[in-house]
Amino acid sequence: MTRWGWPQSPMLAAWLAAGVCVSVATLAFFGIRATREFERSSQLLGQQRADQGARLLATALTRDMRAAQTAVLPLSAWDEFQSDAPHEVIALVATTFARYPYPDTFLAWNAHEPSSKMVFYARSDRPPRWAAATADLGRSPVRVLTDPRVAALMASQIDSDEQRGQLYSVFDIDLDAVRYQVVIRLRYHDRLRQSLASVYGFMVNLSWVRQHYFAELTRQVADIGSNTGLSFGIVDHRGEPVIGKPELAETGLSSRQTFSFAFFDPLPVAANMRDEAFDLQTWTVLVSGTADPTLGAAIRGADVIFGLAAVAAVMLAFGLVMTARAMRTGVELAEMRAEFMSSITHELKTPIASIRAMGDMLTRGRLRHPDDQREYAAVVSQEAKRLERLVNNVLAHARITDVADVYSFEPLDVEELVSEVLKGFKHQLHRGGFRITVDLQPDLPRIQGDRAAMELLLDNLIDNAIRHSRNSKELRIEAIAREDGVALVIADRGVGIPVEDLGRVTQKFVRGRNAVRGGSGLGLAIVNRIAKDHGGRVAIESVLDRGTTVTVVLPVAQIEAATTYDTELPPLPGAIRPSTSSPP
Questions:
Q1: I want to staple 437 with a disulfide (CB 3.0 to 4.6 A). Which of 45, 254, 409, 476 is the partner?
Q2: What pTM value is reported for the model?
Q3: Which phi and psi angles does 564 have, rounded to 5°?
């Protein structure tokens, strides 16, 4: 661990990253699950409302369709019917018409009379098509009719059920191209049902109820408060829509409930019915909750919460990644600083130790011969210059960090600068056996720069070339006038820089992977900063084990603006890049 508590072990860092990923994944999982559970609960609530609406409508239809048979036909008021005084039951029929919209016509008949005496009570507002015109009874809602033809058809059906001792005669019949469902109660003189006394019942126009009755009753059910937002529909036994759309059954939140399409109670009536008389059909109520605004708002709210949770998880993951990167960068920076301090300490101690040892020998008079004294003095001078260069680099590093120093620009002679810097490396180059090539273009224009900074720039480039040279001890220095300035070229035949490190070696504390021990990791960073501060640029070309070439382009001094430049030279690349060939 570092002093700040960050893990340095790659294994610990990997475990930390895995823990962070698991935490984010867990948070995202539970957030998504919570929103999905909320959405699922909303959908279940919507499904329950759809089921409740379907049951309510089916129950309402069943009860209302059976009411005329179960509540009206058993009334004792029908016993007062007399064919010669048919108006005695008009009040009962009018009340039934007002309460139940589906009975189209009521009928009554005393069985001891001929069927032509059968009396029909029709609605005044919608008289049946088969009925002949009758006198207007004013505002009465009931019209009293007789029709021997229809009466004979009814009597034939009633006769079949009488012979079987039925309490009800239920059948479908077509009258003038209109389909009717007929429900008739049979009243007998005796308990054994041997002698028929009278009959009374009602007729339902099936075409009218399909078009009007179901739509009105469904609307009334839909208007109930708990059913707001539900979509209702009804389909017949063939799957054809009566009201609504059959697609309601295919929606996500739908419910269906079946009911018998019969205007009577099938349980006591249909047990002994003749199969050929009546076809008992099963219709279906369809209810969908997808149009429920409350449910829609809940689902949209769940989707919004899910989106926000996902965004929050992504932002948290992004923040954790950025934090991890910052931690890693901090660790790397701390490691580079530690390496820098170790290197700088070594670099400082080495010349100090050499200067101290040489000084002690000179002070104690152990060197008698003048040549030995001069050699030791030269070594002391060389080490002092080495120490001075190191101190200058450290000071330059402070300048790069604070950007507080101010350059003193003046016209500088390139040949003079190169000569002055090489003097400081004379003994080191001689002892290393370097072959030095200096090729400066004649009449080279002066550059605009700070002398101390330019000397530090050349010092670092030459020191790097010497430090990283192994078997091939060569140093080449060139200066060429270009249209964009003066190009200083420092080339060696050293170890070279890996391609992947070329873009990083101009950063502080960064050293090539195959760099020799020693050095502060500041040299090329200082060179790059000085060049930029002077309006120039640096380009580096390198091939492993074949050497490195550093080219620095610096602006020409203003008083040299009229200088003629060599335009035949190739332009200097504007960015640091690897070279595919060996340096010259």
A1: 476
A2: 0.51
A3: -85, 130
